[in-house]
Amino acid sequence: MGCRRSKTSQKKSQARFKALKAARKSQLHQLEEEVATLTEFGVLLSGQLHQQEELIHQQEEEAQFNNKLWAVTEEECWEAQKKVIQQDEEIVSLKNEVKQLKRENKSATYSTKYFETKYYYAMSVIQKYGMIVVDDNMPKSPSPIPLSSSSSFSSSSYDQIFVENPVYVDDNNDNSNNNNNNEQ
Prior knowledge:
Blueprint: H1 7-128, E1 132-134, E2 161-163, H2 175-183
Antiparallel strand pairs: 1-2
Coiled coil: 84-111
Keywords: Coiled coil
């Protein structure tokens, strides 16, 4: 004999079954919504992750570009510094060369002045005793040395001197005249 159920009990069981079925259906629907939400969230996260990866890749490329740019700029800076150092060395060299040229110019000026002074002194002594006449075109006194490399004292000055009525002294006949010349 089997257990017989009553109609009430059967209706209660069916009602419970329907309630459980509805509850499971509701849970299933809720789980499907959660899965859909999680799937959308996963897709969003995947998209964000992909964007972040692209951003990281872009930043890495920018960093490499900036590093290359920095290296080029740094090299240009070093080259500019080398040029500045070379120019400074060149300036120092040129200053030293200018100092040397000034010393040489001063030395040449003193040397030229010395010989010009001796020349004009000798000319004045010779002219004083009337032995030589100086051409009118020749300067009578030392002139200032021009800034150019040429001097007023040159070998062409000798061409401007000529002897007028030279006085010859005979040492055998005129000892007194010779003594006078030696004293002066």
